[in-house]
């Protein structure tokens, strides 16, 4: 399970980092659709399959949505989707008005940077933006891979608990994916590929937080408190 979770987080990290070839290959294999069909929540899979989507068109679609400011642009980082302004923040960013939420590199970025530091992790994805979706998913991939290694090697319970605690803390900071997914759905109205993948990411992170990470952190009936 930990390895499967790592693979999906890795695919989501590559997707929101703009790896068009990787996205195209995953669509062609039906990787996204296969995951979507597992969840009890109904997720439309028509746009998660490879028909009519090549790397070039996906690259253009990615840039229009997540790179080039314009009518369809959706910032792919948490700070832009925050509902509360950061406590102490100064910026001339177009996303920020003093006393309002929506900063660039606001409190959500600082929170994620602290988690990376605690795990001695340096994200390679996300354009050096700590709260970029690609960086967050890359971090979850690394944590799930670490969990898989510990389980395979009979790692200590203390180390497993530490990794799962970091997973839980990270997932608790991904609530902004809900607002991000809604914004992508409103902007990606032509092809709908990234809207569908964002919907999958939202569903998966919510499921992972509730069904896997929280369940693993619960003490068993035979474990003393």
From TrEMBL:
InterPro entries (alphabetical): DMSO/NO3_reduct_chaperone (IPR020945), TorD-like_sf (IPR036411), TorD/DmsD_chaperones (IPR050289)
Entries under SUPFAM superfamilies matching the protein: TorD-like
The protein's name: Component of anaerobic dehydrogenase
Pfam assignment, any one: Nitrate_red_del
Organism expressing this protein natively: Halorubrum distributum JCM 9100
Keywords: Chaperone
Gene3D superfamilies assigned: TorD-like
């Amino acid at each position: 399970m930990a390895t499967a979770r790592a693979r999906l987080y890795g695919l989501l990290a590559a997707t929101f980092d703009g790896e068009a070839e990787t996205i195209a290959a995953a669509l062609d294999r039906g990787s996204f659709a296969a995951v979507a069909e597992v969840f009890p929540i109904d997720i439309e899979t028509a746009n998660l399959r490879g028909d009519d989507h090549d790397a070039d068109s996906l690259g253009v679609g990615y840039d229009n949505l997540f790179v080039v400011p314009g009518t369809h642009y959706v910032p792919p980082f948490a700070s832009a989707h925050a509902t509360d302004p950061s406590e102490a923040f100064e910026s001339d960013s177009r996303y920020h008005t003093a006393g309002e939420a929506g900063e660039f590199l606001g409190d959500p970025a600082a929170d994620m940077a602290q988690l990376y530091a605690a795990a001695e992790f340096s994200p390679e994805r996300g354009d050096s933006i700590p709260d970029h979706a690609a960086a967050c998913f890359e971090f979850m991939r690394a944590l799930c891979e670490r969990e898989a290694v510990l389980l395979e090697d009979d790692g200590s319970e203390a180390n497993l608990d530490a990794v799962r605690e970091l997973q839980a803390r990270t997932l608790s900071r991904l609530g902004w994916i809900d607002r991000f997914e809604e914004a992508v759905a409103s902007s990606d109205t032509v092809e709908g590929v990234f809207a569908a993948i964002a919907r999958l990411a939202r569903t998966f992170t919510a499921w992972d937080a509730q069904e896997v990470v929280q369940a693993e952190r619960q003490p068993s009936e035979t474990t003393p408190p």
